[in-house]
Amino acid sequence: MSENKNPEVLLKVENLKKHFTPHMGLAASLGKARKVIKAVDGITFDIKKGEIFALIGESGSGKTTTGKLVMKLIEPTSGTMVFDGEDVTSIAKKQLEAYRRKVQMIFQDPYASMNPRFKIRDVLEEPLSIHRIEGDRARHDEMIVKALEEVKITPPEEFMTRFPHMLSGGQRQRVATARTLILNPKMLVADEPVSMIDLSTRAEILHMMKDVQRDLGLTYLYITHDLSTARYFADRIAVMYLGRIVEMGPADMIIDKPLHPYTKALIDAVPEPESGKVDVIKELPISGEIPSPANIPAGCRFHTRCPYATDECKTLPEPELEDIGGGHMHACRRWKEI
Amino acid sequence: MDKILEVKNLKLYYHTSKGVVKALDDVTFDLYKGETLGLVGESGCGKTTTGTALLRMPTAPGRYDGGQILIDGRDIIPLPEKEVRKNVRWEEVAMVFQGAMNCLTPVYTIGKQMLETLQEHRDMEKEQAEELIREYLGLVGLPGEVMKRYPHELSGGMKQRVVIATALFLKPKFVILDEPTTALDVIVQAQIINLLKKLKKTFDLSFIFITHDLALEAEVADRICVMYAGKIAELGTNAQIFGKQGPMHPYTEKLLAATPRLHRKVESLSFIPGTPPDLIDPPKGCRFNPRCHKVMDRCYVEEPPLKEVEPGHMVACWRLEK
Predict the structure, then answer these.
(1) A265 to chain B: nearest residue by CA?
(2) Which residues of chain A have a CB within 8 Å of the CB of B186?
(3) Which residues make Cβ contacts (< 8 Å) with residue A278, sequence separation at least 6?
(4) Which residues in chain B have their CB less than 8 angstroms from residue A256's CB?
(5) What is the ipTM of this complex?
(6) Residue range B217-223: average pLDDT?
(7) Model pTM?
(8) Which of B185, B216, B218 lies closest to A58 in CB terms?
(9) Which of A191, A239, A243 lies closest to A62, judged by CA?
(10) Is residue B44 within 8 Å of B276, Cβ to Cβ?
(11) Distances from the Cα of B178 to the Cαs of B25, B38, B46, B51, B227, in angstroms?
(12) Residues with Cβ < 8 Å from A5, sequence gap 6 or more?
């Protein structure tokens, strides 16, 4: 078991796997072997203190499952997770509570993540009662006001008496962020925190999250399918495909000098607001859609969609992540030629 | 080019217990044959309301309070519902609703669901109808055997293709697409956009493409109509909005600035502070005045009219008055 000796690293994930075995009817289970869904299939990364680390991928790439594993909402099949020097791969319920105080989550849907019958004050007090944070009502109010001020909800006293439906999407996501901050966490897991917010105010929420991160020295795991916000928001990006990381490195390097054909395809597919493209059919380097994680292709798992795949890619074992310097890693054996 | 749709001074109000919500207020635009018109704006600006209004099915308690919708010269607003069902909806105008791919019923095969639409409108033998369905599935890049599949067996992109095929096979004069790619991943989104471009070219089709994403409009729309608070703020060609000169309405400028660009590294992304106004009691004067960065005294007094500032480019802003 590897102990984290580097004080810089907050979360260290090694060869983490999560395989799901679906329930089958009796007849079906007699007939054929159970299909295992390999949602996360051996990923290794670490997140440094004060860093914003983005996980990017299409639906079905395993990014949300990774987020749940980090939150310890589900148990990994194998692999290790070390948080702040402590092995948290399988911890007892009591320690889990302490862990959750340190690692908090911002959900995708600001409308669904709040009890509609709770006033904002109650929404924010709930984590305090769940974690049995000492203090009377006045002390709690003080903490709530502080958290709301942190996310620029002003005046906080006025908002505390409102119900969630009286807030705009952006304000709700601010309150959701305040709710995570109230426990003084070290790390936040944000799963698509702005995908349901209007484009015009998305940047406002990202600015707020970045300010909070700077002010409080927080660490983020940012999960998204949106490369543009990841580039602006994150320090480092890891690109996931079918449960594996295929490329990882500093955000600018990944966007400006992608090495893996999948990353290149993702970048090419992003529309840019410029004229002169209406009558042009966009060249897409890869075709088809992501295969099912229940049926992962042999060899390099991307070979079925890769325009550069050779026989080697289909038959030889899967390439591991390789560092080419500056922390830029990729898992493609033909990266030099393409 | 032939004008196939003329919307003239369309007013659609929601009569609620709290007051009258002016969801569409004096909206005027045209659609030409073989053209894609983009409707863009934030949530609550009237994009989807425009779509359902053109289908002659405004969401309750919405009511037409004036204006005309002329399809090939015929106003569809006063038509009896029976006539609309028989000869307008799906025959002349079709719509792919937001999230339509999730509206396929899980208990019937794709073929059966498509057949239902077809038999409602056409007297056709089953074999003949199935032949037609197969042909249209082919057009959207799906194999004929998809007919035998159930929705859960298809991916999001495939379902979206099925919905597009269903909208097309009665040969409508134009198709309204409401956020057709929002729930899809970037690569699948690009595939669907390519498909729409091919269909448009091959069949000289017309589309109204509704989205909140300006970058997507730059990909698909010949002309772009920017809506704000139930009104048209700016309407111009792709080159006028996305070209060198850039848009002229402060709202479009802000919207464009807030659109993230992958290949341009910026220190900070810009955004539009505040939210679109309450349409029961919109701000006096220009409706954008509380959020505008170029606001003048006149903007608080009078509402600016939509005026042509150069051929084909309409803007509703007092700043452009000389």
Answers:
(1) B187
(2) 58, 225, 227, 266, 269-270
(3) B36, B197, B219, B220, B221, B222, B238
(4) 263
(5) 0.87
(6) 96
(7) 0.90
(8) B185
(9) A243
(10) yes
(11) 20, 10, 12, 8, 14
(12) none
